[in-house]
């Protein structure tokens, strides 16, 4: 497991007020090389990202820490999506993690221990958390366009690993990945109002108005109790990360 001991590296590379990682400014030569590569390479996986969604996430091990997240979504199949998660939609946004989203059909087939790592996109009182509350939005895309996708997302489960805790000032991805969970309060009571307001101001939207427009969305008929382990136990699932050496060892005959 990667160490989180900050004493082993210069403080200037780990935290502080500067949001960008340490390193020299990009040279003109490097810019030219990158531009040339873009012209010659297909970058097919990146080009398959079909939508940008903005929502919020909470650290399962410390629920006082809430962050705005920007998901760049690739649909692999009707039942499986993969998302590169950034801390902003700016050109220099930091890649802070990855989320996988599966349909209820796939989730039900997972082993119970695996299901504990996933969060539902619905709430136990049958009101969708991110979707019906208006927390999940597709910036600058009309609601009518994304409505079918939003209705499908209400019956899905996500597994979100945060690999870069930029919200605490880390200028590099440090330590083990953190398991994230979905805000689950339709009245927005679980998400800090200032986070929602800042997002609303940036995109000139009203989350409360979006919530009202989604009130008629159909609700999932069944939520697997194995999901949202954090909600049932008041803490994140205990993650046992083996040292790299152990993972590389293979038994000999």
TrEMBL record:
Residues 1-11 have a biased composition (Polar residues). Residues 1-27 are annotated as: Disordered. It comes from the Eukaryota. InterPro entries: OBAP-like. It holds the Pfam family DUF1264. Transmembrane segments: none annotated. Belongs to the OBAP family. This is Oil body-associated protein 2B. It comes from Dovyalis caffra.
């Amino acid at each position: 497991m990667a160490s989180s001991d900050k004493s082993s590296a210069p403080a200037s590379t780990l935290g502080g007020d500067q949001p960008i990682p340490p390193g020299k400014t990009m040279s003109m030569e490097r810019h030219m090389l990158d531009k040339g590569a873009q012209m010659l390479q297909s970058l097919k996986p990146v080009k398959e990202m079909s939508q940008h969604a903005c929502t919020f996430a909470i650290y399962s091990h410390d629920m006082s820490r809430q962050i705005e997240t920007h998901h760049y979504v690739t649909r692999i199949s009707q039942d499986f999506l993969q998302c590169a998660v950034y801390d902003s939609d700016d050109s220099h946004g930091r890649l802070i993690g990855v989320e996988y989203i599966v349909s209820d059909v796939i989730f039900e087939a997972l082993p119970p221990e695996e299901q504990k790592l996933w969060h539902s996109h619905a709430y136990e009182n049958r009101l969708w958390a991110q979707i019906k509350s208006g927390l999940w939005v597709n910036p600058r895309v009309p609601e009518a366009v994304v409505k079918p996708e939003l209705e499908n997302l209400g019956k899905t489960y996500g597994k979100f690993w945060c690999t870069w805790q930029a919200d605490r000032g880390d200028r590099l991805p440090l330590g083990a990945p953190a398991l994230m969970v979905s805000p689950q309060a339709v009245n927005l009571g679980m998400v800090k109002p200032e986070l929602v307001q800042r997002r609303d101001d940036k995109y000139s939207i009203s989350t409360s108005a979006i919530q009202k427009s989604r009130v008629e969305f159909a609700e999932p008929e069944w939520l697997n109790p194995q999901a949202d382990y954090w909600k049932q136990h008041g803490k994140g699932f205990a993650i046992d990360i083996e040292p790299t050496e152990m993972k590389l060892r293979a038994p000999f005959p």
